[in-house]
Amino acid sequence: MKTKAYFCCLAVLLVSSAMAQADTVCRSTIDDQVGVEVTVYNNNLGLVKDMRNVRLPVGVSELRFADVASQIMPVTVHAKSLNLPDSFTVLEQNYEYDLMNADKLLDKYVGKKIKIIDWNQFQDRKDVVKATLLSNNQGQIYKINNEIYLGHPGYKILPEIPENLVARPTLMWLCDNKSKKAHNLEVCYLTKNIKWKADYVVVLNKDDTSADISGWVTLNNKSGATYKDAGLKLVAGEIHRVQEEFEDRAYALKSRKQAGAPQFQEKAFFEYHIYNLQRKTTIKDKQIKQVSLLEAIGAGIQKELLVYGTQSYFTRQFRDQNPKQPVNVYVIFKNSKDNHMGMPLPAGIMRLYKHDPDGSLQFIGEDRIGHTPRDEEIRLKIGEAFDVVAERIQREYRQITTRVHESEWEVIVRNHKKKDIKVGIVEPLFGNWAVVSNSHPYRKVNAFTIRFDVKVPSDGEVKVKYRVRVGL
Rg of the chain over CA atoms, in angstroms? Predict the structure, then answer.
């Protein structure tokens, strides 16, 4: 029992000694910063590495590390000394985020006396009133000379700032330092409300055979901190997180004759891709910043016109037919080095433009792409053709058994353009199917899809007929 009591007393003495030494409060602000790196992810998350030169007294002291992001995730904070790792230890950590404002300051003085200074315009002098603040809930209530005032004009004067309010987000550590030298302190943490996305501009040439493609990174910082002269990295990929969108920019589009040196260096990273900006940049709080990601001049493209069928067509008879069908317009190209591209492309929106007959650049459509590795094909649905008309007519239908259906179809494509075109007719089938007869050759795209590719002359039409049998 005596031994147990002895160790209990010793523990109390050690804690008391540490707390006594911790009366020394050290402060570090952004003025101590010697470097900062920011890695931004697709899912509204950022990793901040804040490096500062900090001098601490030997022993246990309190370090107030100010000017961190207000959207910081405190449980992710990690601090270490880069130059003296064995001499710096964090014993306890707190995050103080109760930032002062007028309402919070008044909240701290409820039940206390304050001064109110009001300008007496009739006597041209200042009147000082002593008041007890009774409430600061949806307006102030004061007690002045034993009377209750619901609000009062004038400036409210407080004697001091309460200790438990801070002017800016601050990390507080109880730390043990064993060195008299200054520490090169690296503080890492995750913060919310910082994100990035990719936007692309695709300018088609006159014949729709090539395009100039530029990519932009749009960075949106609402993390509650400014990162001055920061090293910037972007991570593209779907990072899994345990569960506890941007404003658009109007692009100034100009014709480009050559591509500049890329600003981002891309590398594979784990199962993702990381894009490292090859220069420093300042990311201000509440700022949308855009940085050029890529330039590809003269990338070869292919325009495709497609008419799509539906599986439900083949198991019923159409009595009230609406034969008109949209002719969808696609632009297709390969993200390869041979095609003047080849950088893994982050997910984003590709917006397409083309010069009209007067030479003015016009918007012609947009589509969203997913994360696209190099040497993969990109297909963009741009819209529907105006001068190409498709009609689908069911010429015959019969139900052979309860599970077998046979139908005959005629797809008519009319071309009102001044040049010949090629149109693809894509028919999704199902079950045990067989084409009984067909007027034009087709190819089997996959187990349940066939496709007819037909040439349609200018101001002409083509009729594609075929009979198909499907079994459920």
Answer: 35
